[in-house]
Each structure stands twice: as C-alpha cells, then as structure tokens.
Design goal:
7-stranded mixed sheet; 7 strands; alpha/beta; 2 domains; Glutaredoxin; 17% strand; 6 helices; 190 residues
C-alpha cells in the first residue's frame, strides 16, 4: 500500500513540476519576447482592414503618428472590452495627430464580424499570415498576438511599447500616453 501511495504522489509531483515549468517558461517568454525597443524603427506593415482598405506604415511617415494596438482574438471578452472602449471613448484619441488601429492575426472575415458587432469606427487590421505580428514580436506561445500597443512617431520611430493594457480603459490610457509623449493635438501648431 505504501509503495502505491508513493508512486501516486510521485506522479502528482511530476505533473505539478511540469505545470510550473510551463507557466514559468510562458511568463519568461512573454517578458522577453520583444526585441523591439523604444527608439527603434517600427517594422513596416501592409495589412487589410475590415473596410477592405490596405494600410501601410510607410504611407504615414512624415505625416502623422500611428498607434498600433495588437489584440489576441476577435470576439473574446477582453478584446471586446478593449474595442468597445475605443468605440465609446475614441474621441479622446482622435484629439491627437494620430491614426490608430487595432490588429490581430485573425482572418479578415472574423475581424469584419467583430468590427460589426462592436460598431468599430476605426480600422481593424488582419494579419492572418502573422508576418507583421512576428516583425513586431507579439506572437505568443498560443500562436496569437499578445495585447501590446506600439506608439510610432511620424519618422517611424517607436516612441513607446505598452505591455500593460487595461481593456476597460484602453482609450483613456491611449490618450494619456499620447499626451505624455507630447503628441500634438489636431488643429494646434506644434
């Protein structure tokens, strides 16, 4: 009886060790995943939006700042909350000289459905090949984008990388970050 109990505990212990190792490696991976740093040139992207239009970072260079908010998956709780924040309080972001996008590795049709359900009034970009997501180092161990927002200057330089996204206050936080970064408000001289 003692041997059977000992073997059972040993299996539980090994399983627990495996779970801890997986959690530790995923935390380590997400904490070190991004090779991009503030001051680096942002990778170019050419992604189709839910409107059918294509958006290319190069088209904004010298003209306006860009905010690229990566999110894990359309039609999920956290992503819906983040999108609704940007729909309901997007006017706070639009006060600034910036174009902003949400982007995921979801197929375009899934993002179109998501945009329709949330009444998104801004471009939602799809990267089903994950090429741009990989260039931005946001693809996580689950194969989806991590929730990370990139603030990109008119010259294409990364001004801020925000890994600490609160979906409920995404719009307010984005506007606060633009203010901290001294991004010019629309209609005001610099």
């Amino acid at each position: 009886m003692y041997t059977l109990f000992q073997k059972s505990n040993q299996k539980v212990y090994l399983l627990l060790c495996l779970v801890v190792a997986l959690i530790t490696s995923s935390v380590t991976f997400s904490a070190t995943a991004s090779d991009l740093q503030v001051g680096d040139k942002a990778p170019n992207f050419n992604l189709q939006a839910t409107t059918g239009d294509f958006y290319n970072l190069k088209d904004f260079l010298g003209k306006t700042n860009v905010v690229l908010a990566w999110y894990p998956m359309a039609n999920t709780r956290g992503c819906t909350i983040e999108c609704k924040s940007l729909v309901e309080k997007g006017h706070l972001v639009r006060e600034y000289d910036v174009e902003y996008f949400m982007a995921s590795v979801d197929p375009l049709d899934k993002n179109r459905d998501f945009a329709e359900k949330t009444n998104a009034d801004f471009p939602m970009l799809s990267d089903p090949t994950k090429a741009a997501a990989k260039a931005y180092d946001v693809v996580n161990f689950m194969g989806v984008a991590s929730r990370v927002t990139f603030y990109i200057g008119k010259d294409g330089t990364i001004l801020k990388i925000d890994h600490d996204i609160n979906p409920e206050t995404a719009a307010e936080d984005m506007a606060a970050n633009l203010k901290k970064l001294n991004v010019r408000k629309r209609g005001k001289a610099k």
